[in-house]
Design goal:
The complex is a heterotetramer, with two copies of chain A and two copies of chain B.
Chain A (H helix, E strand, L loop, with lengths): L3 H15 L5 E3 L19 E3 L4 H13 L5 E3 L10 H13 L9 E6 L14 H6 L4 E3 L4 H13 L4 E6 L18 H8 L28 E4 L4 E5 L3 H16 L3 E5 L2 E3 L3 H11 L2 E8 L4 H13 L8 E5 L9 H7 L3 H13 L3
Parallel strand pairs in A: 1-2, 1-3, 3-4, 4-6, 5-6, 8-9, 8-11, 11-12
Antiparallel strand pairs in A: 5-10, 7-9
Chain B lengths: L3 H12 L4 H23 L13 H10 L10 E3 L5 H7 L3 H8 L34 H15 L5 E3 L9 H10 L8 E7 L2 E2 L2 E2 H4 L15 E6 L3 H18 L3 E6 L20 H11 L5 H24 L29
Parallel strand pairs in B: 1-2, 2-3, 3-7, 6-7
Antiparallel strand pairs in B: 4-5
Helix pairs in contact in B: 2-3, 2-4, 2-5, 2-10, 2-11, 3-4, 3-9, 5-11, 6-7
Classes of the chains: A alpha/beta, B alpha/beta.
The complex binds thiamine diphosphate (2 copies) and magnesium ion (2 copies).
The site of one magnesium ion has 6 residues of chain B, from strand 4.
C-alpha cells in the first residue's frame, strides 16, 4: 500500500494532469529533492522557490487570483508563522470582494511531533489554522484519506490548508488507493526517485488513477463504541485506536474513535451524534493546550449535548510549554503518547455519572 | 469596452500619444471625487476617508496606459489606497467609489464592508485592495507568473507608499520577480510622498532612492517626478513597453504630493505641497490648450457628477445585518459550527 | 479622571523615569504625533520606526536580550500578524536557553471593534496571544487598571503583550490614578499636546506619581452576583456591567461580572470560585468564535466545576466572519453589543437546571 | 577571561596580527568537533546533526576577533547553525557542543532541548540560536541599538546563509541599521555556500552578489573568499575596525563550502567542495610553518578531545521529563491554568 508521502504525490499528479494544477512549489519541492519528505518527487510542475515563506504564500495567492490552482508548500508548519497576515488576507478575499475573487489555493505543510524534531520541527498548527476565517483545514491520518482529501482540496474553490502528520508520513496504509498497484514494491519502482545521481534522468511512471475523492467536511468513525467518544486527528489517530483496542480487551470499555480528518468545517453531525450516544467525550490532539481547537469542539459539544453528558469532557493536548524539547524524555511527556491516551480514555469512561 | 473611458484607454495605449486635455480632465475628475469624499466624512455620509489627491499626475497616465480586461492577457493591478485616479482613468464611474465611501450595499467593490478606495473589480483585473501595507508586493508575483506562462503582453502592476517599502514584502517582490531565467513581467511602483502618516521619509530611510534597491537584483529602475503628468506619461510609456516586451520587471519610483494629509484621522485638511492639478492647469492655460473658463467648467462638471453620485448613493440601502456570512466561502457556507445568528 | 490613553502615557513616563525604559517605539509613536491614539505623547524616549512590524518586534526583542526594557507598539493589532514567528521566538527564548536569556519586553497594541474600523481596524488578538507560550497577556478596560498593569508589565522580566481596547481609549475612568490631579482639565493641560504647530516646542509637565501597580494575574470582580458568572475583558466590560444592572433592575437576576484584566496567566482562583458559586457561566469577548480564548476558559472551568454547573456554559463572541464590515449594520451584528449580551445573560440565567 | 582561548582571542583582537598556527589549530579543532558530531548520528548518540564544516576559515578569524564578554560593552553574536568554529575560536569547550548534540541535561546552551549548534551563552553575549532561518537579522538591530547608546566599541555581529537572505528579515536588517543619523554598529554577514538545502543559489537569486543589496542603503559592503583564512582575517580586521570605530554597519558576504551537505537529514556525507582546512594545512606545510606530522598530531589531538568529550557526555543524564515547564517564565511559573503533569 502507498505511504502517506506517496499518496500526496499521486494526488498531486492527478492535480497537475487532470485538475488544472500548474504549479506545485515551495522550498526544495522541485527537483532534485522533491520535498524534504519526498511528497513532490517526480511531479511535472514542481519547482523550488527562494527561501521566503511570504513569497510562497503570496505567490500562491496571486496565482489563485489569476484563476490558477496552485499547490504551495511550507516546508514545516513551524515556519508558517511569518505569513499569518497573508493567510488572513487569502481567507478574507472572497468575502471582502463580495465573491468576486475566490482564492482556490492549497497550502500544504507537515505538522506535529514524532521525529525528534525539537523546538522547530514539532509544531502543531491546528489552533491557529482553525482560527483564521475563510480557510478550510484538513489533516488526514491515512494514505487513502490523504489522497482523497488532497484531490478535494485542489478542486475546492476556497483556500485549503492541507496539513499532514509528519510522524506518519512513511506509514503504509491498510486501504488501497484506487488504481494503485497491488504490490507496494511495484508502486515504489514506479514513483519513488532513485537515490544518487541516477535521479537526474529519472522519470516516474504513474499508475492509472480513476476519479476519487474524499469530501472535505466528513469525519471517519475508525472504531465504533458505546462508552465514550474520542475525537482526534493526525498523529494521535492510530494511538487512539490502539488505546481503544487495549481498553476493550482489558476492561471491556468500548470507545468510539473518530478521526476528524477535516478540522474546518468539521463534521458536526457525526461528532454530535456520537457524543449524545456515549455521553462522554475526550478530545486528543498535540497542539498546546491554551486556546486549543479541541476546546472549541468541547465548547460546542457541551453547548449542544450538555444534558447528555455524564462526565466532564476532557482535552488531552500538548503541554503548554514553548516547545517540544529534543530529548525523548522531554518529547515523550510533552505531547500525548499511547499510555497517556489510554489513561485519559479510561478516566473519562470510569468517571461516575 | 464600449464606454468612453475604456476606449480612451485602449486608444492611449495603442498610440502612446498623450492627449493632454484628456489627461487633465481625468485628473480633475479624480480630484473632484476625492474632495467630495473628504467632505463626506464631515457631512456624516461616511466614517473614514483615505485616498489619493496628489497622485493624479502619475496615476491618470498609468490608468490610461493599462491594458484593461479580465484574465492573464490583460494587466493586473495590485493597488494601495491612493489609487483612485488610476481607476478613474480606467473608466470607473465615480459613484462606485462613493458607494464604498458611504458603505452602501451597492458598493461593487466590497458591498459596504471595506474602507473607501479599497477597490476590487474582477472584469478589470483589479485585485482586492487591502489595508495591510505592502502585502500586495508579495502577492503580485503570482499574477505575473500566470502572465509569464500565458504569454502575450499583459503585465502586473503593483503600487504602494514609500514608508511601506520598509516591509519585507518589497524585498520579496524584487527577489521573486528577478529569478534568473524566470523574470516576471512586473511594473513595481513606489509612490513616494515623503511621509508615512507622521513620519518623514528621511528619518527612517537609509535608502535615499528606494527604487535603487532593485539594482542589486539586476532589475532596471528609475525615478520620475510624479507631479508632472507629461514626464510621468513618457516614463510610463517607455517602461511599460519594456516590461510588456521583455517580460522582465522594472522598478519605478514616483515623487508625489499628499495633498490632504494621511487620512480623515488626521483631519484631511488641505496642506501646502505642490498641487499637480493646479500646476498642470496653469501650464495648459499658458500654453493656450485650455482656457481658465474651461478649467472652471471642467471642475464644476465633475463636482456636480460627484455630488449627483452622492445624492444617488444616499438613496441606496446599507447592507443587511444578516448578510455578514455571505461569500465567506465560494460555493456556500458550511453547516458547522452552526453559525450563530447575527446579534440583534 | 485620566483617560485610558493618558493612563498609558503616565505609566510610560514612570517607566522611562524610574523603571529603566530607554525606548518607547513604533510607527508614529514619537513626535510629532505621539501615537495614533496619543498614548505616547510627550515621552522623552519615544521614537518613530520604519514601517516594519518585524523590525519593531525584532528590535524590541534584541534590546531586551541586551538587558534593556523596551516598550514597542504595533499600531493596530490588525498589523501584528506578520510577526507571529518572532513573538513565538520571544516566548521561547528564556525556556530554550534554560533561563539564560529572559526577554523583558512590552509589546502594546490596541484591539477590538467600536470605531467603525472595518476589516483592518477591528481585530481582536486574544486567541492567538494566549496561544503563544511564554508570553503574559494583559487587556485592561479602565484607566486605573491600564496604568497599574502597564507598570507591572514593564517590571516583569518576561515578554508581556499589553493589549488595550480602542473603543474605550478616550473614556475617562471613575477611579483616580494615584498622583493624578483632581481636575481632568488640569491633567489635560499638563500632559496633552496642543494641536498644530505650537506642539513643536511643547513639553509636558508630569504630575508626581507615587509607586503603584496592579499585579499581573489578578482579575477584578466589577459586580458581585449570585445567579450567573460573566467573564469578560476589554470593550465588553462596561457593556456587561450595564447588562447586569438592567437584568437586576428588571428581573432581579444578579450576575457576577468579572473583568479578567490578565488573559494569561489568568486568575484561576477567582473565576473558579465564582463559577462554583453561581453554577452558570457566560464568557463574552469579541474575537471570532472558533478556537477562541473563551473556549479555553469554558473548557477548564467545565473540567473543574462540572458538578456545579446548572446550565451549559456559553460563549458570546465575534461572528466567525473574515472581518468586521464597515457598515454599522454589519459591525453591530458581528461583535457583541449591549442587547445581545443582555439576552445571553438572561438565557444562561433562565435555563432550567 | 583567564582561559587560553579567551586570552588568545583578546590578544588577536588587540594586535590584529594573525597567528596562522593558532588559526590552523582552531580550525582543526572545530572540524574535529563537527566530524565527531556527524558520527554521533550514526552511533545513536544523537538524533540530528547540522553544523559548519566548511566555514572554519572564516569563522575562526571571526571568533578570535570578537570582543568576548557580557553586556553592551562587548560584542553580541546572533548566529546561525553553522557557527561552531566561531564559538570554538572564542573558547568553547568541545564538550559543550557535544552535550547539546547528545541532548544531555548538562548541555549549557539549552539543557537538551534544542538541536545541536544552537548556542546560547549569556557570559559571552551569544544570544540563543534558533532554527528559524534569518529571524536573527530582525533581532540583531536591538542589541546594536543598545550598544550605539552605550558607547564604547562593542558591536553586533549577525550571520546566516545565502538562501536565508531571501527572507524579509535581511532587508529589515539593512533598513534598521542604516537609519540616517542613527546608524548601528553592526557587522552583517552572509555565509554564501551556494545552497539552500537542495536549491542552488543561482536558481533563486537575481541578486548575484547579496551584499550589494546594502549599497542602496548607503551601507558599505564587500565580499571575501571565506575558504581563505588569511583573506578572511584581513578583511575582518579591516571591517570590524570600521564598525567599531565609525559605529556604522558593514555588510560582508563570505563564500564558503558546505562540506557535509545540508544536515544529517541528507546523510551528512562528505561532498566534493574545496576544503579550507586541507588547503590551509597544505599551504602551511609548503611554507614550512607546520610539518605534515604536526598536522596529523593536531588532528589526532582534537579527535581525541572530541571523543573524550563524547565519552564524558555519555555518562551524563538526559533531562528529566518533569522539567518541561522550567524556565517558561523568568521568576516562576504561574498557577493557572493548572499545568497538567507531564504525561507518563
Ligand atoms: C502592515 C501595516 N502596518 C501599519 C499600518 C498602518 N498604516 C496605515 S497607512 C500607514 C503609512 C503608510 O505610509 P506609506 O507607505 O508611505 O503610504 P502613504 O500613506 O504615504 O501613501 C501606516 C503605518 C497598516 N495599514 N498596515
Ligand atoms: C523560516 C524557515 N524556513 C525554512 C526553514 C527550513 N530550512 C532549514 S535550513 C534551510 C536552508 C538554509 O539555506 P541557507 O540560508 O543558505 O543556509 P545554509 O544551510 O546553506 O547554511 C531551510 C529551507 C527554516 N529552518 N526556517
Ligand atoms: Mg508615504
Ligand atoms: Mg546556503
Amino acid at each position: 500500500m502507498a505511504t502517506l508521502a506517496q499518496a500526496i504525490r499521486l494526488a498531486l499528479h492527478v492535480g497537475e494532469t487532470r485538475l488544472g494544477v500548474t504549479d506545485v512549489f515551495g522550498e526544495d519541492v522541485g527537483p532534485p529533492l522533491g520535498g524534504v519528505f519526498t511528497c513532490t518527487q517526480g511531479l511535472a510542475t514542481a519547482w523550488n522557490t527562494p527561501l521566503d515563506e511570504r513569497g510562497i504564500v503570496g505567490t500562491a495567492f496571486g496565482l489563485a487570483l489569476a484563476g490558477e490552482r496552485p499547490v504551495a508548500e511550507i516546508q514545516f508548519c513551524d515556519y508558517i508563522y511569518n505569513t499569518i497576515d497573508l493567510l488572513k488576507l487569502a481567507g478574507n478575499c472572497c468575502w471582502s470582494s463580495m465573491g468576486q475573487f475566490p482564492v482556490p489555493m492549497v497550502l500544504m505543510s507537515p505538522v506535529g511531533s514524532g521525529i525528534h524534531g525539537s523546538i522547530y520541527h514539532s509544531h502543531s498548527f491546528d489552533a491557529i489554522a482553525t482560527h483564521i476565517p475563510g480557510w478550510k483545514v484538513v489533516l488526514p491520518s491515512t494514505p487513502l484519506d490523504t489522497y482523497g482529501l488532497m484531490i478535494a482540496a485542489i478542486k475546492d474553490p476556497n483556500p485549503v490548508m492541507f496539513l499532514y502528520p509528519k510522524a506518519l508520513i512513511r506509514h503504509q496504509g491498510t486501504e488501497k488507493i484506487p488504481g494503485e498497484p497491488d504490490d507496494p514494491k511495484v508502486l515504489s519502482r514506479m514513483i519513488d526517485a532513485p537515490v544518487g545521481s541516477s535521479r537526474e534522468h529519472w522519470r516516474p511512471s504513474w499508475p492509472d488513477l480513476p476519479d476519487f475523492e474524499i469530501p472535505i467536511g466528513s469525519a471517519k468513525c475508525c472504531r465504533p463504541g458505546e462508552h465514550l467518544t474520542v475525537l482526534t486527528y493526525g498523529r494521535t489517530v492510530p494511538l487512539c485506536e490502539q488505546a481503544a483496542q487495549k481498553l476493550f480487551e482489558q476492561e471491556g470499555i468500548s470507545a468510539e474513535v473518530i478521526d476528524l480528518r477535516t478540522l474546518f468545517p468539521y463534521d458536526g453531525e457525526m461528532i454530535l451524534a456520537s457524543t449524545r450516544k456515549t455521553g462522554r467525550l475526550l478530545v486528543v490532539n498535540e497542539d498546546t493546550e491554551v486556546t486549543n481547537f479541541g476546546e472549541h469542539l468541547i465548547r460546542v459539544l457541551t453547548e449542544h449535548c450538555f444534558y447528555h453528558l455524564q462526565a466532564p469532557p476532557r482535552l488531552l493536548a500538548g503541554a503548554n510549554t514553548p516547545g517540544v524539547g529534543l530529548s525523548w524524555n522531554l518529547e515523550r511527556v510533552s505531547v500525548p503518547q499511547l499510555d497517556a491516551i489510554h489513561a485519559a480514555m479510561r478516566e473519562v469512561a470510569m468517571t461516575e455519572a | 469596452m464600449s464606454d468612453v473611458h475604456g476606449s480612451a484607454q485602449v486608444q492611449a495605449r495603442r498610440s502612446a500619444q498623450m492627449d493632454v486635455r484628456q489627461v487633465y480632465r481625468l485628473m480633475a475628475k479624480a480630484r473632484a471625487l476625492e474632495e467630495r469624499m473628504i467632505r463626506m466624512t464631515r457631512s456624516n455620509d461616511g466614517y473614514f476617508w483615505i485616498g489619493g489627491p496628489g497622485e493624479e499626475a502619475f496615476n491618470v497616465p498609468l490608468g490610461l496606459l493599462i491594458k484593461r480586461g479580465q484574465g492573464p492577457a490583460f494587466d493586473y493591478l495590485h493597488h494601495h489606497y491612493r489609487s483612485s485616479a488610476i481607476l478613474v482613468a480606467m473608466g470607473l464611474p465615480l459613484i462606485d467609489a462613493i458607494r464604498q465611501m458611504a458603505q452602501r450595499a451597492t458598493d461593487p467593490n466590497s458591498g459596504g464592508r471595506n474602507f473607501v478606495n479599497h477597490f476590487a473589480k474582477r472584469e478589470w483585473n483589479v485585485v482586492p485592495g487591502a489595508s495591510t501595507i505592502e502585502t500586495q508586493y508579495s502577492i503580485a508575483p503570482g499574477t505575473a507568473l500566470a502572465q509569464a506562462r500565458h504569454g502575450g503582453n499583459g503585465i502586473t502592476i503593483v503600487n504602494g507608499g514609500d514608508a511601506g517599502s520598509s516591509e519585507g514584502d518589497f524585498a520579496t517582490c524584487l527577489n521573486w520577480s528577478s529569478r534568473p531565467g524566470r523574470e516576471l513581467p512586473m511594473l513595481i511602483l513606489i509612490m513616494n510622498n515623503n511621509w508615512g502618516i507622521s513620519t518623514p521619509f528621511e528619518s527612517v530611510h537609509g535608502d535615499r532612492i528606494i527604487a535603487r534597491r532593485a539594482e542589486a537584483f539586476g532589475i532596471r529602475w528609475g525615478t520620475v517626478n510624479g507631479n508632472d503628468p507629461v514626464a510621468s506619461w513618457r516614463k510610463l510609456v517607455e517602461v511599460m513597453a519594456y516590461v510588456r516586451k521583455e517580460r522582465k520587471p522594472y522598478c519605478l519610483e514616483a515623487y508625489v504630493s499628499r495633498l490632504h494629509g494621511h487620512s480623515s484621522s488626521s483631519g484631511a485638511g488641505r496642506v501646502q505641497e505642490p498641487d499637480c492639478l493646479e500646476m498642470f492647469g496653469r501650464d495648459l492655460v499658458e500654453r493656450e490648450i485650455l482656457t481658465a473658463a474651461e478649467i472652471e467648467s471642467i471642475q464644476a462638471e465633475y463636482e456636480r457628477e460627484a455630488m449627483d453620485a452622492l445624492l444617488q448613493a444616499r438613496q441606496e440601502p446599507e447592507p443587511d445585518g444578516d448578510t455578514i456570512y455571505d461569500h465567506t466561502f465560494a460555493g456556500g457556507t458550511p453547516g458547522w459550527p452552526p453559525l450563530h445568528k447575527p446579534f440583534v
